[in-house]
């Protein structure tokens, strides 16, 4: 199994990826935090519940100075007596990805986010960045049912500026099959 190909990736200055139109995935929590309020102000980072099995994610942040070098550390965790690392743990150069669009995992994430976010341009990023009512999900992988957490640490000039951590539950595709 090629973990890189099947894993999720990272995109710059947009926050995260997993929504829950599909019955098998439900966002359960979202937490974001700025580490440097002279560069990033976090206005909004929250889930909106539409129904028992549908939530959407809204993120709104301001980048106060242009960010020319953006990268992100991405890690996935699965809950089992506390969260344990699961499958993916990597670092993506976001600006490089936006120039070349050639990273297979980056592409998956980018395609998930592009319609509901302000990510659709190249670096630098500056000003208000949003992810609005994000709920579309087409996961290209099948995961074991369970509770997951995905943590992102976003870096400008190689230094952590903010994190965004999203949890979700995943149910193997039982509901859509019957
Ligand atoms: C949400 O769950 C309810 C029952 O809990 C089900 O009837 C409904 O079809 C589900 N909606 C979706 C979009 O899966
Ligand atoms: C997100 O997770 C990372 C890695 O575990 C942690 O360092 C960070 O504090 C978390 N951020 C928030 C806002 O919970
Ligand atoms: C915090 O942001 C300021 C303003 O952009 C920047 O000059 C500084 O290097 C940043 N500090 C860290 C530790 O990233
Ligand atoms: C994002 O937050 C800023 C500051 O609160 C606000 O002015 C702006 O209208 C918000 N944008 C969206 C799309 O919610
Ligand atoms: C933004 O997305 C649209 C539609 O997918 C595309 O035509 C356009 O070239 C994109 N813009 C940039 C700067 O990537």
TrEMBL record:
SMART domains: DM8 (SM00697). Keywords: Signal. InterPro entries: DUF1091. Residues 1-22 form the signal peptide. PANTHER family: DAEDALUS ON 3-RELATED, DAEDALUS ON 3-RELATED-RELATED. This is MD-2-related lipid-recognition domain-containing protein. The lineage of its organism: Eukaryota, Metazoa, Ecdysozoa, Arthropoda, Hexapoda.
